[in-house]
Amino acid sequence: MARVGTRIAAGVRNGLLRPGPDPTYADGDDSTWMGVDWPAMTRRVTVGEHEITVLDTGGDDERPVLVLLHGLSGRWQNWLLTIPAFMGSHRCIAPDLPGFGASSLAPEGVSIRGYARVVDELCHSLGVRRAVVVGNSMGGFVGAELALSSPTRVDRLVLVSAAGLSIEYVRREPLLAAARVLSVTGARSVGYS
């Protein structure tokens, strides 16, 4: 029987265990993300009762800000392939939402509305007044809630396979679904094919 060995490269920086880059992480030929010094941009921030791990590429106040929200059971690293494409033109902020990745979960747990509140408070603590919010899956649901609860914080909202509104719901309740989309986006009309 053959033995399979696994080598894990790791280091400690900013108080967090950091695995080294895994070249097999993603499909495709773009390995740009492997050349980024991720630990230098990652830190822990206290937001209310939560210790949040956040990646913040920083930058001057003139650049637009992207807030990238991962999905259920995700973490900021879900955006490793996306962030390098925007780092030169945007300040990118990607938190581990409470209870995911390296962020703590409050004893009482968190709701979608609670996650939106945490993201709003995180933006405030990082000096971000307005941002383009990009949410994947549950992160899309959180982003939509943030747009509803703090509309002055969200400049634009990008939903990527967002939770909270399925095509089945759209087919079953088209008027309610349209009203929900309109309330989130502020659009005057909505359609699907």
Account of the 3D structure:
There is one protein chain. This protein has 193 residues and is of the alpha/beta class. The chain has one domain: Rossmann fold, CATH 3.40.50. 25% of the residues lie in helices and 23% in strands. The chain is built from 5 helices and 8 strands. The strands form 2 sheets. Strands 3-4-6-5-7-8 form a 6-stranded mixed sheet. A two-stranded antiparallel sheet has the order 1-2. Strand 5, helix 1 and strand 6 form a beta-alpha-beta unit.
Helix and strand sequence: EEEEEHEHEHEHH
Label the CATH architecture.
Answer: 3-Layer(aba) Sandwich
CATH superfamily: Alpha/Beta hydrolase fold, catalytic domain
Please list the strands of the largest sheet in the order they lie side by side. 3-4-6-5-7-8
- CATH C-level label: Alpha Beta
* Biggest β-sheet description: 6 strands, mixed
Low-confidence stretches: 1-15
CATH topology-level fold name: Rossmann fold
What is shown here, in short?
The protein is 25% helix and 23% strand. The chain is of the alpha/beta class and 193 residues long. A hairpin with a 2-residue loop joins strand 3 (42-47) and strand 4 (50-56).
